[in-house]
Recover the amino acids of this structure.
């Protein structure tokens, strides 16, 4: 796995809009808060031309969004890329991205979540480059607590590799016992992953084979409830995606009310998965969020219902 270099003080951030832009509320106001905060910290921001657009669910036409992303990745004056927001149809830019070209370029950190799974997943499975499944830039110090925002910067600067859950709320395990899993992370927003499933942009099974099953899937949902997550995990199991992995991490559900009186715990128990499952983890569409380094090797543990993750960037 290729890890981009850690960033330095006063690095240049390339703000990209591969899905949504930050036009309208609350996107614009949140982005301005984040932008001013990062500039006060000494960072320089370079914004792609489409960042302030949002029409019909996209910041611009797919070819233009893809070109802006590629241009910023190729620009050596930009140190790392940060997506301005999530969205709905980032998958449409995939035919216009050149992952073979990206493999030849200086690797850069890319940060985003939700619809940004469309880039994060193939970046690992096609180009073997790690990226960061974490808050979009418009959430920095606005929607996210300052502790979580600073933790992400600490990771990018190589100052922090061990992270604990931020809130005093329990993380659960399927066995109801202390659990530790060690392996390489791969995942993202499960609705996006299911859209990519078995297309040319889905390299999950090959990735699992490449790393000899030493993989932990991390999955979280924007809309799915407990039964939706159960249905999705059933499909992944039937297609063989869960056969050779070390375990599964599931982010806290936004839609966490029991569906037809079925809790997420009951849904997971019904599946009778024979691998460790940790759920109610602080990543994805809930706040605050722990940064998940896609493609990184990590030790994950739940001790007395407290979650931690420790990254090893040498593997």
């Amino acid at each position: 796995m290729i890890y981009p270099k850690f960033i330095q003080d006063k690095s240049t951030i390339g703000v990209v809009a591969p899905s949504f832009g930050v036009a309208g509320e609350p996107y614009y106001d949140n982005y301005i808060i984040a932008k001013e905060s990062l500039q006060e910290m000494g960072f320089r921001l370079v914004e792609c031309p489409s960042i302030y657009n949002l029409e019909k669910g996209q910041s611009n036409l797919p070819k233009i969004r893809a070109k802006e992303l590629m241009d910023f990745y190729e620009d050596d004056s930009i140190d790392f890329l940060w997506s301005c927001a999530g969205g709905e149809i980032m998958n449409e830019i995939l035919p216009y991205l050149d992952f073979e070209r990206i493999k030849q370029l200086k690797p850069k950190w890319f940060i985003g979540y939700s619809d940004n799974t469309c880039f994060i997943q193939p970046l690992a499975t096609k180009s073997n480059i790690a990226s960061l499944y974490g808050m979009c830039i418009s959430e920095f110090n606005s929607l996210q607590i300052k502790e979580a925002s600073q933790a992400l910067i600490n990771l990018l600067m190589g100052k922090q590799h061990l992270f604990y859950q931020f809130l005093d709320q329990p993380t659960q395990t399927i066995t109801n016992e202390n659990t530790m899993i060690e392996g390489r992370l791969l995942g993202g927003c499960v609705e996006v992953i299911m859209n990519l499933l078995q297309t040319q942009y889905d390299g999950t099974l090959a990735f699992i084979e490449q790393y000899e099953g030493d993989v932990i899937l991390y999955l979280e949902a924007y809309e799915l409830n407990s039964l939706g997550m159960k249905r999705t995990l059933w499909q992944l199991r039937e297609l063989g995606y869960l056969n050779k992995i070390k375990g599964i991490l599931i982010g806290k559900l936004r839609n966490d009310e029991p569906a037809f009186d079925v809790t997420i715990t009951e849904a997971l128990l019904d599946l009778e998965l024979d691998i460790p499952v940790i759920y109610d983890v602080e990543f994805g569409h809930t706040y605050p969020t722990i940064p998940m380094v896609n493609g990184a090797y990590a030790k994950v543990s739940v001790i007395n219902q407290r979650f931690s993750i420790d990254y090893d960037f040498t593997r």
About this structure: The chain is about 30% helix and 20% strand. The CA atoms of residues 35 and 45 lie 8 Å apart. The first strand starts at residue 12 and ends at 16. The mean pLDDT is 97.
